[in-house]
Amino acid sequence: MRLTRQMLALTGAVAVLALAGCGSGGAESEVPATATGSLEHLAAEAKCKPDMQTDADTIRQAICKAGKEKYVLATFATDRGQREWIDMAKDYGGHYLVGRKWVAVGEENVLDDLRGRLGGDVEEGIDHSSMDHGGGAHASGHAGHGG
């Protein structure tokens, strides 16, 4: 897989969000059909004013706010590019809300709320809390939560 600067930049943003801490689980609500469209369309559906970070042919990325929390919203030119990015990003841990050619990355409670607007499937990154990586920056109690 060839890494691009845009993929590395988004992966870096994911790492920051993943290491920021764990959210509390929210109640499952009715999930709508998964939204599709441009980053701007998805942001409007999510009631977010996107702060564009990357605007490239293969990936577009923006930071959105949900109250005091932030999340990353990204769209991809291809399904394959999206899946490769997700597979690589999951090594950083974190929580991912995944739709067709888009992904949102943030705290679990933020994504639960966002899922109620955009639909999609929740995926979880690798839990590194049991690994020694400089003092356990992301020690969590998320081990094996059911979804």
Tell me about this structure.
The chain is an alpha+beta fold. Helices cover 30% and strands 24% of the residues. It is built from four helices and six strands, in the order H-H-E-E-E-H-E-E-H-E. The protein has helices at 5-19, 39-45, 79-89, 108-118, and strands at 51-55, 59-66, 69-76, 95-99, 102-106, 121-124. It has a six-stranded antiparallel β-sheet, sandwiched between helices. The longest helix is centred in the N-terminal third of the chain and has 15 residues, at 5-19. It is globular. Mean pLDDT is 79; it is low at 15-28 and 132-147.
What is the structure about, briefly put?
With 147 residues, the chain is an alpha+beta fold. It has helices at residues 5-19, 39-45, 79-89, 108-118, and strands spanning 51-55, 59-66, 69-76, 95-99, 102-106, 121-124. Helix content is 30%, strand content 24%.
Report the structural category: alpha+beta
- Note the main sheet: 6 strands, antiparallel
Rg value: 14 Å
**In DSSP terms, counting alpha (H) and pi (I) runs of 4 or more, how many helices?**
4
Distance separating the two termini = 30 Å
Helix-strand blueprint:
Layout: H1 5-19, H2 39-45, E1 51-55, E2 59-66, E3 69-76, H3 79-89, E4 95-99, E5 102-106, H4 108-118, E6 121-124
Antiparallel strand pairs: 1-2, 2-3, 3-5, 4-5, 4-6
Index terms:
single chain; 147 residues; alpha+beta; six-stranded antiparallel β-sheet; 4 helices; 6 strands; globular; disordered C terminus
